[in-house]
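Figure 6 in text form: structure in, sequence out.
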């Protein structure tokens, strides 16, 4: 199997970069559709309008209906046709970004992604998660290429709740350990091949950045100010983790996250918060040295990521519920089977309870 690495055409990150959005859009098209939430439009329209006023480009706005579903994708495509749109800009959170990527794919126009939070590593990916109109997961849409431009304005990101940045750290925390597992097993990544050395190196840099700067970034984010540490964590959450997960591969941590989605008690938790606990469980499955496990768990405690089932909302631990999580995580089609050894539901069950016991002792 070939080694493959993929990435967005251009990644831009910095203070006030939304003011220069039109400059980055200009090579892609002359008339842009900006897909944005109603609240996001109020916050950002003046800045985007001023950006386009300095170029020959034109921008049209469309308010997102709230769900990345087939009907919304089709609706936005019709808006693009009616307005002769030749580039789409997604401004906001994950579902807006995924809808924009899907519209770009189906309508054959370039895509620019402008995340306003750094809570996941999805912005750079060639993937859209499709839901029903009622918000139930339907399918993954794997795209033939990554976004043409990803632009992150750090001034905008730091205005979001700190919990979102921390959740992004939880998602990024899994990147190196899952890529390392895929490299050991020879499993294919989302990029369609085995991990390159470059992807593994970026995944390791992602982890090192979290450990070195994560806690400092949290303190600054709580004050809604952007420091060098915050800038490095935004890059780790968005770009390093994005390349690392897509071209490095997914393994145990994300499968265990998927397992926890079967419990209603966990539905209020963010994706990255569940992934962080899944990372601890994966490391226990691997029987890593205690020093490595403790470094990860100490980091989670320091930034406020969950290390116990209780922190995930499971205040009463019922064996049958934990086994349901384990069985879902070990489903035949999930990525836990990218681990470099066989994993059963019983293995996952045992590792979850062990992780919870260690976490309780730490707290």
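Output sequence:
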């Amino acid at each position: 199997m070939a080694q493959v690495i993929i990435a967005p055409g251009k990644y831009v990150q910095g203070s006030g970069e939304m003011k220069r959005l039109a400059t980055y859009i200009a090579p892609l098209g002359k008339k842009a559709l900006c897909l944005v939430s109603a609240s996001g439009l109020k916050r950002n329209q003046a800045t985007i309008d001023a950006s386009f006023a300095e170029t020959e480009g034109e921008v049209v706005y469309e308010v997102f209906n709230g769900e990345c579903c087939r009907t919304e994708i089709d609706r936005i495509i019709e808006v693009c046709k009616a307005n002769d749109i030749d580039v789409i800009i997604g401004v906001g959170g994950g579902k807006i970004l995924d809808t924009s990527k899907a519209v770009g794919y189906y309508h054959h126009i370039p895509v620019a992604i402008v995340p306003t939070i750094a809570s996941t590593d999805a912005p750079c990916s060639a993937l859209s998660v499709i839901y029903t109109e009622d918000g139930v997961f339907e399918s993954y849409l794997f795209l033939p290429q990554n976004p043409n431009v990803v632009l992150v304005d750090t001034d905008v990101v730091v205005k979001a709740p700190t919990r979102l940045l921390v959740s992004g750290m939880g998602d990024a925390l899994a990147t190196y350990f899952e890529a390392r597992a895929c490299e050991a097993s020879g499993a294919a990544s989302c990029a369609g091949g085995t991990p390159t050395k470059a992807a593994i190196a970026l995944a390791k840099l992602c982890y090192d950045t979290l450990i070195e700067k994560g806690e400092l970034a949290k303190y600054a984010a709580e004050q809604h100010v952007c420091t060098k540490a915050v800038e490095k964590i935004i890059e780790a959450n968005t770009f390093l983790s994005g390349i690392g997960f897509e071209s490095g591969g997914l393994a145990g941590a994300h499968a265990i996250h998927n397992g926890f989605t079967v419990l209603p008690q966990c539905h209020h938790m963010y994706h990255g918060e569940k992934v962080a606990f899944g990372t601890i469980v994966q490391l226990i499955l691997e029987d890593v040295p205690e020093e490595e496990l403790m470094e990860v768990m100490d980091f989670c405690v320091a930034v406020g990521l969950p290390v116990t089932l209780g922190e995930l909302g499971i205040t009463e631990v019922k064996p049958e519920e934990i086994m349901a999580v384990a069985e879902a995580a070990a489903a035949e089609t999930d990525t836990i089977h990218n681990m470099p050894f066989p994993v059963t539901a019983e293995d996952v069950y045992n590792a979850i309870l062990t992780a919870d016991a260690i976490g309780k002792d730490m707290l």
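Caption detail: Residues 197-222 form the longest helix (26 residues).
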